[in-house]
Amino acid sequence: MKIAVASDHAGFDLKSKIVAFLEEKGIAYRDFGSGPGQTVDYVDYGVMAMDSVVSGECDRAILFCGTGIGMAVVANKYKGIRATPCWNPFTAQVSRSHNDSNCLTLGGRTLSFEEAVEIVRTWLETPFEGGRHQRRVAKILEVERKNFKP
Ligand code: RB5
After folding, report:
1. Is the distance from the beta carbon of residue 8 to the nearest atom of ligand 1 less than 6 Å?
2. Confidence check: pLDDT of 150 > 80
3. How far is ligand 1, taken at its centre, from the CA of residue 125, in Å?
4. CB of residue 10 inside a 6 A radius of ligand 1
5. Which of 149 and 22 is assigned the larger pLDDT?
6. Which of 43, 65, 83, 120 has the fewest CB within 10 Å, making it most exposed?
7. In DSSP terms, which residues pair with 105 in a beta bridge?
8. In angstroms, how far is CA 100 from the centroid of its own chain?
């Protein structure tokens, strides 16, 4: 599995630490920026990462901004993306097992590294449960089909 990662300035420090964690675990990733000392718009970096997911270059994404909210709003504009801001291991677990999250968003101003790394670990390790949750995800896809222009 290859993970797209991106941040704005408010998520940069947390992104750097999570990237080090991915490297330590041998998990493939591509970092779309931003870099140190830049002040940027989270939208631009979220777009680069999510383009790589919808093109198939990356399988999932982990995006960082101040709160995780702006990045989630951007990512959820993409067809087929279920981006979930998570704030503890339980929300990370359920975002995968129930919502089949394919984009985790995290807040550099709301989470410590210790909290974030447990969220990332849980999100990466938890499978989608399927069953009744597959029916619900299928309904989300139907909402998308009706509302996204080709
Ligand atoms: C940047 O100051 C901040 O607005 C951004 O990182 C994020 O929190 C937006 O959702």
Report:
1. yes
2. no
3. 28
4. yes
5. 22
6. 43
7. 63, 85
8. 12
Residue nearest to atom 4 of ligand 1 (CA): 66
Rounded to the nearest integer, the mean pLDDT of the chain is 97
Question: Mind listing the domains of the chain with CATH numbers?
Answer: 2-147 (3.40.1400.10)
Q: From ligand 1's centre to the CA of 7, what distance in Å?
A: 10
Nearest CA to ligand 1 atom 9: 70
Across 9-147, the runs of DSSP E, i.e. the strands, are 28-31, 60-65, 83-85, 103-107
Q: Is 61 exposed, middle or buried (0-12, 13-18, 19+ CB in 10 A)?
A: buried
Q: CA-based angle 146:147:150, to the nearest 5?
A: 90
**pLDDT tens digit sequence for 62-91:** 999 999 999 999 999 999 999 999 999 999
Element counts in the chain: helices (H) and strands (E): 6, 5
- 2-7 β-sheet, strand order: 28-31, 2-7, 60-65, 103-107, 83-85
